[in-house]
Amino acid sequence: MVVRSGFAVLAALVFVGCDDTSPGVAGDTTSAGDAASEADTAGGEEETGVDAVLETSQEEVAAPEVEAETVEDDVLAETEADTSVPADTAIEPEVVQGEGPRLSFTIEPFTVQSGQERQVCKSVNIPAGAALDVVRFESNMRGISHHFNLYKVIDGTALNPASAGEAVVHDCEPAAEQLRGDAAYIFGSATPERVMQTPPGVAFHLLPGQRLILEYHAINYTTEPIEASLTIDLVGAPPEMAIEHHAEIIWFANWGFALPPGQETSDTASCSVPYDVEIFGLMSHFHELGEHFTIEAVRDGEAELVYEDDDWAHPKYEGFSPPLSLAEGDRLRWTCTWNNDREPLKMVFPNKGSQDEMCMVFAAAYPKATLSAEPIQCNVWF
Question: On the chain, which terminus has fewer CB atoms closer than 10 Å, C or N?
Answer without folding.
Answer: N
